[in-house]
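SEQUENCE-TO-STRUCTURE ENTRY
===========================

Backbone structure tokens: a row of integers, each naming the local backbone shape at its residue.

Task: work out the structure tokens from the sequence, keeping to the layout shown below.
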Amino acid sequence: MPRIRLEGLVKRYGAVEVLHGIDLDMAEHEFTVLVGPSGCGKSTTLRMIAGLESVSDGRIWMGDREVGALDPKDRDIAMVFQDYALYPHMNVARNMSFSLRLQKRPQAEIDKRVREVAGMLGLADYLDRKPGELSGGQRQRVAMGRALCRDASTFLFDEPLSNLDAKLRGQMRSELAVMRQTVKKNMIYVTHDQIEAMTLADRIVVMHGGHIQQQGSPSELFRRPANKFVAGFLGAPPMNFLDIELREEGGTLRASGRGFSLVLPDALADRARHAAMRKATLGIRPSDLDFAPDATADRALDLRVVVSEYVGAQSVLICDCGGARVTVEIKSETPVALGETLRFGVRPEGLHLFDAETERAL
């Protein structure tokens, strides 16, 4: 499988530049997920790799071959779109085998390949049905099967699950996770759903405003976000942000805000001192706050419960902290009354500091 590289990739529509020099190196057999809000440039990047959008500047390499000027049919790629794009008059087998029939492959080879892929995707019993007789999830699997039958070196997915309901999305995520273990191909997947990115990717590429904000493994981006945008985008519920001032007291560095003053752990305090900053943004994930009525005030937040959302084994609390909203995840059996002020201990390893001006993480 080819290594895929993007070098200084730029896209302009007239005088408007929407991609500003994207550099990205994707290893063989890697499942890469491009994620970000609408308009960040992720689908444009994917369509440029596919050859569906022209390159304004920069280069696209697949292995040792530059493909930026090649037609889509010459790039050895297969693509799954957001809409299924199935032929309604053809049954599942003919939809899946369409590219093979265009290539005039032997019928025995076509039949064997369709059966293999249908078995992998749980479609073996549906080969004689037409798309109108299938559910949304089944039609999406047929679209994936059509791409897999082609046996290209690289598979591109453009938000393939966005048209499905929540239950089907969860089911299809699981099926994709299984498929990526059995299909040893390059896969590039575009989504705005950070849950899909976290659960599927070998590497996540977070994009915003036509720039790559950060790339790395899901755990790396979750634990060590490069900036406030990445920290707030990845994770559900999202990270809490509080405006603070940094103050030295008795040899310790404190993050002080409205109604709290937390002692920073030594490693984070050393980085803050080195940066010589006075004002910053403190980030705390909801899962790094623990109900701890006996915790000391310098390692805890006192939060007034505004809303309690019961979601099964967990409850999500929306709380007030000096006028700022703070979200907390706790076990559902924890006694909580609306309007009550509770103390939550802050895990030292769960504290993040961001520069108040540049929003870069320390």
